[in-house]
Amino acid sequence: MNGTETGKQIGAGVIVLVLLVVGSISAHHLISGKRRDNKVPNAISIRPSWLWSPQGVQEEEWKHFDDPRGIECGPFGELIVADSGNSRVVRFWEGGQVEILGGYGRGPGEFVMPVDLYIDHEDSSLWVVDSANATVSTYALGKSQATFIESHRIGYVARHNNPSLVVAPNGGSFYFTSRTSQGRILEVDYDGTPVGQYGENWAPEDGSFPLRNRGYINLDADNRLVFVGRFVPRIEAYSLSGELLRSEPFREEEIRREMENANRVIEEKGWDGAYAVPIVGAYIPAKSANIYIISSGLRIDVVDGTTMQVKSTYVGETKYDDILFQSFCVREGGGKEGDVVYVLDRERGGILKFTVVPAND
Question: Residue 267: left if φ>0, alpha if ψ -120 to 50, beta else—which one?
Fold first, then answer.
């Protein structure tokens, strides 16, 4: 949304138990970009297509996502979406296979408002946060079918606005960030009992950035909790016990200028309730040494997880600035295959697939 977010809330939709996937729809254009590191002069291409699009492709309303909140790249080549407004989780493969998990209800394995997903790739388990039921449910993922294991009622933490979830690799704890956690990482056990609160609620003294009232957490290959601030451009790494291991600024001066420009436009346009959102998502693929960060304007920064410095940047045109980014995931390809980025568009209820490939010399 070109660095702005309206705060629009979409109501819960009709309960849906079945779904049909329509194949990929190729876009009739190519978003070309450039790599913003002068040491690597090669351009790159971001090739877009709607993997799941509501734009007249699926005629029946029940086939659409409704206010989808979370997306994960599954261990068996599938994509998994927290379809919040439809009170379900959708697991599907690009070839057309679909599996529906849950459905409306307040019992074990049922959902009212699933909002975030986490996959433990060591044992292929899926964890689903439901902010209305205040639960975290877990499934064992098979190659074609998932098996419900159990639900954990964890109370107020899950009710936070759009919580971001990480599950401790050896079990026993959940880690959350959310709007109401004010930039902190909250740890609770499987019964919802608070264990710890990590990080600080801070902002620069000059007032150039608001409080970090939202962030994104991921677990990296070294089992560190990696926090990326949504408003304050900073990357932090914590141990599972909450010790701050590293903290580095991320594009601080650039983002400061971008926010000033965006806020100026908001004021000039008189957009009541709108605000600038410089960082719209962060993701670490399974066992990856990279952190992927999406900023407004379809800018994808690949950050080295050890040094926390930007390795490369891909910038698309502003064709898709009207996307209401909600979540994304990445399948790393490497070499000529490139990385595949799946962006969840909450406003349209669609998924935009980008293949980021090195250009020819």
Answer: alpha
Q: What is the CB neighbour count within 10 angstroms for residue 127?
A: 20
pLDDT at residue 171 in the model = 81
| pLDDT band, very low/low/confident/very high, at 112 (cuts 50, 70, 90) | very high
Q: Residue 88, exposed/middle/buried by CB under 10 A (0-12, 13-18, 19+)?
A: buried
Q: How far apart are CA 127 and CA 140, in angstroms?
A: 9
- Evaluate whether 246 touches 239 at the Cβ level (below 8 Å): no
| Residue pair 341/353 in contact by the 8 Å Cβ criterion | yes
Tell which residue, 290, 284, 196, 287, has the closest CA to residue 243.
196
Percent helix, strand, coil in the chain, to 5, is 10, 45, 45
SS (H, E, C) 219-269: ECCCCCEEEEECCCCEEEEECCCCCEEEEEECCHHHHHHHHHHHHHHHHHH
pLDDT score of 2: 34
Residue 200 has pLDDT above 50, yes or no: yes
Contacts of 333 (CB under 8 A, 6+ apart): 339, 340
- 317-348 pLDDT, tens digit per residue, is 445 555 667 789 999 876 556 788 888 877 77
Token readout for 313 is 């940047």
List residues bridging with 226 in a β-sheet: 218, 237
pLDDT band at 51 (very low <50, low <70, confident <90, very high): low
Q: What's 193's DSSP letter?
A: -
- What does pTM read for this prediction? 0.80
Q: Which CATH architecture has domain 10-223+311-358?
A: 6 Propeller (2.120)
Main-chain phi, psi angles of 268, to 5 degrees: -65, -40
